[in-house]
Structure formats: structure tokens, C-alpha cells
């Protein structure tokens, strides 16, 4: 089998001839192709080659961080995303992704700061509101979580996940009518959430009828 090192040369030659891309971009594009096929290890190698050639290649760091996060290697993801933020502090998604990774490692204060920074950059980011609401729920700040989920819904009225998650918070607060309304809306907006939503609706209705036996 020919070495992949030599297989890369025709692509690099086309790149040089056309002048339309860089060698780092070739490696990046190959990483994307591997990632789309679920070949994470190969994708990481290509992204690593890309950033070795171009240490300022933010997209390559972002995609590599995505793979680390999916594999549960949050410390590596945080390292890559910190590099992205150093290179471009205006990237809202980098703060959101790093906040998620920090939340998963229990670094709640850092995650809260990153979600807050993301919302400073983009006050209309429903995803940032959703993520901060999830964080606040884990921190048992249910009132704060309700506020962020409600803001996510205001920004994106068809955000099924925000409706479902707000329903969970209402349920934890024993606000069953409100929870039912949110679960019903989530089920109407998303077939993927419908089964779980109807299960929670059934539970809430039982609670409204009286103590569970």
C-alpha cells in the first residue's frame, strides 16, 4: 500500500498550482473528511498537522477540540479552545464550547464566566443562554436557570430544547402546570423530544392529582 505521505503530494501540487489554498488547508480539509466519516483519530492527526504548519489556524483547533470533547477528553478540548480565544477573542462559539467543557469537568465558575462572555459578544445567542441555564441548574440556581431558558425562548421561539429544559426546572420546583405547558410545546416542536416530554407530562399530571403511591 502506498504511503499516505506520497498520496498527499498530488493534492499539494494542485494547491500550489492553483494558488487557491495553503498546505495547512489541505491537511485541514482532509481532517474534515475523516471527521465526517467518523474517523476521529485520523482527523486529529490531520488537524494537528495543520496547526503545526499554521499555528494560527483557529478552525483546525476548533474541530480538534470538538473531537476531544466528544471523546470526553475535556482538558485537551479546553487547551485547544483557549488557544482559539487567544488568537481571536471575538469568537462566541469558542467561549461556549470551552464553557461546556469546563462545566463537564466541574469548573463551574470558569464555565459561568465563559457563557457570560459569549453573551456579551452575542446577546441573542440562544445556545449560550441554554448552556448557562444548564450550568445554573447543576448549581441548583433554579430561578437563574428559568431566566436563561426564558431568554433563549424569547430569542428563538422554536427552541424545543429550551422549552423541554425549562419544563424540567418547573417540575423540580413543583410548578407542574407550567412544566406541562413547556413539555407540550417541546413535543410539538420536536419529534425527537416528544416521547420524553409525554413521559414527563404524565408524571406531572399524576403529581397534580395527588401523592404518588
Describe the structure.
This protein is mostly helical. The chain has two domains: 21-118, Tetratricopeptide repeat domain (Serine Threonine Protein Phosphatase 5, Tetratricopeptide repeat, Alpha Horseshoe); 123-213, Serine Threonine Protein Phosphatase 5, Tetratricopeptide repeat. The chain contains twelve helices and no strands. The termini are far apart.
Proportion of residues in extended strands = under 5%
**Main sheet specs:** none
Helix content: over 70%
Structurally, the number of domains stands at 2
**Shape annotation:** elongated
Task: Put the structure in a nutshell.
With 213 residues, the chain is an all-alpha fold. The protein has 12 helices and no strands.
Entry keywords:
single chain, 213 residues, mainly alpha, Serine Threonine Protein Phosphatase 5, Tetratricopeptide repeat, 12 helices, 80% helix, elongated, disordered N terminus
Chain-wise SSE layout:
Blueprint: H1 4-18, H2 23-36, H3 40-53, H4 58-70, H5 74-87, H6 92-104, H7 108-121, H8 126-138, H9 142-155, H10 160-172, H11 176-189, H12 191-209
Helix pairs in contact: 2-3, 2-4, 3-4, 4-5, 5-6, 6-7, 6-8, 7-8, 8-9, 9-10, 10-11, 10-12, 11-12
